[in-house]
Amino acid sequence: MAEDRQTITAAFDWRAPNYAKSEWHRAYAAQLVEAAPVRAGHRVLDAATGTGFAAIALARRVDSSGRVIGVDLSAGMLAQARAAIRAAGLGHVVLVQGDAAEHPPFAASTFDAVMCSAGLLYMPFASALREWRRLLVSGGFVGFSTMRGGFPMPGRLFRDCAAEYGLRLPDPSAPLGSEAAATAALSAAGFTDITIVPGSVTLSPSDLAMAWESNLRSAAHSPVRELSAADQTRMRGRYLTALDAARLADPSLVARAEVLYAFGRRGRTAAPSADERDVSADA
Fold it and tell me: What is the pTM of this model?
């Protein structure tokens, strides 16, 4: 897992400047927060906070009476998040570099909500969900977003092109990318009152202009980076030709990505003590 973590961290360090400009990721995070039952005063863990899109939206929902802790492996992503949070004047957001999926540095029953926008596909999601349930207060909830299997189309085209070079890349959205799969994952982790909200996001022209680099640097597509420079160049040409042809045939189909917003609650038990609810001092 350490090697995988290093690969993911390096990929997102590289992607951070462009990721911070991604309008579809911003909309993806905003829609997740809008669908969530977050309210003023809540303490929220934003797992895989990235450039802070969800953390900023959450901070505005919980108001200054609440608190948002954003955790991410990537120093590059956190640097972008810090700048955005500072510009937004949100003093009740704290960022921590670390692994939000495995042994995050917080006590049990610390948070009213754990949210994860666009990040769960990069984690061992079964153990991550169990860990997040432990961090929730009685009656607290988890929420995450996932692409529906097969989306977004530019990613599917990238994997189709990779197959021409003998690389069979799995769809990273497939394990959680249906109502049944997302429900099963939450149920297996012990969550109840499960709700799956379907939605969609639209990739802007600037998002599509970055599609080759974004897919090439994706942790899910690392085998492509092991191709020779010549093969990468040929694959890039093949990919851009296929993407342009798809956009000409049906621009809305290429740009539209179907997504799911999934929520579940930790069942109510005895109320946690004040000590159990304290966020780690380092946070």
Answer: 0.89
